[in-house]
Amino acid sequence: MNARQMYPPMPEGWNDAEVWRPDQVFAQIQAGLLNGKSIGWLPTKAHFADQKEAQKNGYPDGALVVEEWLLIKYAVGSIPINPETVVDVVSKTVPAPEPMKVTFTPVSEIEGAMERKLQAIDLGTLIQSIFDRKRGKV
Known about the structure:
Helices cover 40% and strands 20% of the residues. The protein is extended, with a radius of gyration of 23 Å. The protein has helices at 3-6, 21-30, 51-57, 83-91, 107-119, 123-134; strands at residues 36-48, 64-77. The chain has 6 helices and 2 strands, in the order ααβαβααα. It has a two-stranded antiparallel ribbon with strand order 1-2.
């Protein structure tokens, strides 16, 4: 399937060069056609709330507090996997006392972290353990 087959046909009289796909998606969101949301994220700084912090902020005891996170994906769709989450997440959001500052992790930092993780893999030992398991060694 190529990119042209993935998107709905363009309205008559529109030229592909004139249409920016994100604008088309945004128009569908505004029209209420893409109500399902999906995010993928990884916590980069988190802790469990102690009793004092939990009481101050109304958290349950031992709640995980995510202070910083890395956004991996944000996607929209017409049919959410769990329709209740569309309403529940919005209604359960706790308003911040001040505007939240969103910081993004630079690509160079992500690449560096991935490079360090890849360098830490001992390929020889990994391959040897696979061969050993295939031979029945545990």
